[in-house]
Amino acid sequence: MSEQERRPEDDGQDFASAAWSIPSYLLAGMAIYGGGGWLLDRWLDTSAFFPIGIVLGIVLSVYLVYRKYGR
Amino acid sequence: MSVLAEVSGNVTAIGYGLAAIGPGIGVGIIFGQGVQAIARQPEAYGLIRQNMLLGFVLTEALALLGLVAPFIFQAI
Amino acid sequence: MNALTVLNPQDQFKAPTPDELFNLPPIIPGVDWFTKPVLLALLSAVIVIGFFWAAFASPKIVPRGVQNAAEVGYMFVRDQVARPFLGKDADRWMGLLLSLFFLVFAWNIMGVIPFAQFPVASHIAFPAVLAISIYVLKVYLGVRHQGPIGYFKNMMFPPGLPKPIYILLSPIEFLSNLIIAPFTHAVRLFANMFAGHMLLAFFSMVGFWFLFEHLTPLGAPIGVIGVVMTIIFTAFEMFIQFLQAFLFAMLASMYIGGSLHAEH
User: Fold this and answer.
1) Does the CB of C4 have a partner CB in chain B at under 8 Å?
2) Domain segments of chain A: what residues?
C-alpha cells in the first residue's frame, strides 16, 4: 500500500493501537526476562541475573516495538 | 518539639513518584510536539509517527525502569 | 497511634486512610455481600436501562427531550469509539459498546453525585469483571475469525523479523497480548477512580476539619484552600470520569477490532 492510497482513518487506528500496546509490550518484556532472571538467581543463589534480565527485557521490547511500528 | 507532619509507609513509593515526573513531562512533550508537527505538515505523517512512537517507547521504558528500580536495588 | 494523639486527640488532623474510605460495612447487617458499591452498581444499571428505555421505547422521527440526549450519546459512541476501530462492523457491536460506555460512565459519575459519592469502579472487582468478559470475547472472536492456529500465529509471530529473534520476542508478544493487556485494561479504570476518590476525600476532610471541627485563626486559610481545592478537583474528577469511561469502551472496541481482522 503506497502512502497516497492510505486512508487517514486507517493511520489513526494504527497509531492508536500502537500507542496503547507499547506500555504492555514493555511491561511484558520486563516481566518475562526479569522473572526469568529472578528464578535463575534463586536457583543459583546469585543476585546479578535479575537486573540483567530487566535490562535485557526492556531492550528486547524496545527492539520489538521499533521493528513492528517504527517503519 | 511537636510533630507537625509525618510520613509512614514504604519510601520506595516516594521514589517512584519522583521517577515518574520526568517521563510524564517527556511523554507530554513528545505527543504535544508530534501532534503540532502533524498539524503543520500532514504530508510528513509517516515519518513523524515513526519518530513519535520511538521517542514514546524510550521515554516509557524509563518510567517502567523507575517502577522496578526498588526491586533491583533490593536484589543487589 | 503515637504519644501525641493519646495526650491530645482533638488537636491533630488525620488524613483519611484507604481502609476507612473503601472498606464499607454491609447496609443490612448480616447480608455481607450487600455493601454500598453493590447498591450503587445495581442502581446505575437500573438508571442506564431506564434512560434508554425512556429514550428509545417509542422513537420519533423528530427527536424530542430524552431521545435527543440519548441520540447525542449514541452518536458520540458510534463516531468516536466504534467506527475508528471496527469500520463497517461498527453497527453490529454498538449494543455492547454503548451499554459498556454508559454503564462505566454511570459507575464513575456516582463518585461526585451528592449522597452517593462513591465511584463504583474504585473496587477492582467491578472493572475486573468487565475486562475479563471483554477478554473472553476477544479470544473467542479471534479463534473464530482467524482459526485457532492462525490467531496465535498472527499474534505471536509478527511478520518482518529475522527468524532467530522470534525465540526471544514471541514470549513477549504472548504475555503482552494475553495477560498484561486485560490486566492494564481493568487497572487503568480502577486506579484512576481509586486515586480520584482519595484526593476528593482528603481535600474535603481538610476543609471540614479546619473550618468546622477545629476553627483557629491559623488554620482557617488552610481550610479555605481545602474547600477551593475540593471544588476544583470535583470538576477535574468529572472530566476524568468521562475520559476513563470513554477509554474503557475505546480499548474494548480496539480489542474486538483486532480480533476480527488480523493485523495488516
Assistant:
1) yes
2) 19-69
